[in-house]
Known about the structure:
The protein is α+β, with helices and mostly antiparallel strands. 31% of the residues lie in helices and 24% in strands. The protein is built from 10 helices and 13 strands.
Amino acid sequence: MPATLDEALGLYAQAPEAVPMAGGTDLLVCWPEHVDRREQTYLDLSGVSELRALRWHADHVELGALVSYWDVLQDDLAARELPILLQAACQVGAVQIQSRGTWAGNIANASPAADGVPVLMACDAIVTVASTRGIRQVPLAEFYSGYKRLDLHADELITSIQVPRRPRDVQVFHKVGPRRAQAITKVGVAVTRSQEGWRIVANSVAPTVCRCRHTERLLQEDRPLRGPGALQEALQEDVAPIDDIRSTAGYRRDVLGRILYHALSKG
Ligand SMILES: Cc1cc2nc3c(=O)[nH]c(=O)nc-3n(C[C@H](O)[C@H](O)[C@H](O)COP(=O)(O)OP(=O)(O)OC[C@H]3O[C@@H](n4cnc5c(N)ncnc54)[C@H](O)[C@@H]3O)c2cc1C
């Protein structure tokens, strides 16, 4: 249990097989069934106070790797400038999970159903990772290369997430689940628009949370949409949903078009 980031990186360099732990809400949920995981070495980051900072800079806001959903829900400036983060945060689990779970843990867990990742990606977030070898920054939209495959080496930790500050006249996150709390997303979408253009990011419809670039280009043309069906051709190119325990591919495809159309009508 390191007390500083330098100590954390040093320990991790010596034992890259260790499992970093932030809030523990993804890691510990499987302990009752996977007894072997209790025998692993964990690198508990919760004592590294420098990772707790939520700092506003002139051109970006920085979320340290221990910043929780609750921290963002309590931040007045975030409520004004980045309401889309709060829309996602208040739908993650319930209050207990929101107060322990971190945005960085959500990114590193790399679930296609993650709710924090789509809103960060729709805001062009950058991930800062560090090891004893140095520091790198990677756009979140380029962080995943396949199911649970991420651009993070064995000795690297996520240290912070940078979200650019810029005017965004559309910020909407829609999550469809079986109930209003403690629900894993069946299909979700985050939508923003800024001078950089549209960002459409969907979750639970591909092996990773994914930017829907064909759909973004369609919206960039600025032609009127006659209904959800007008989005389907572009969305087909962007997503690859599957049937699983929570939903079917057909439902996900259909509902994604509808919630996106609804989000655009609201925006
Ligand atoms: C009841 C329940 C409900 C939930 N509901 C939702 C939901 O609605 N939406 C949703 O998206 N998620 C949900 N989750 C999943 C989880 O709460 C989130 O993914 C959360 O953001 C994980 O953060 P954490 O800090 O707890 O991560 P941890 O469990 O500590 O870690 C998660 C993963 O990230 C790695 N990791 C953590 N920090 C770092 C770091 N700094 N650098 C490198 N790797 C790191 C860990 O090694 C691990 O692989 C739920 C979980 C539970 C138990």
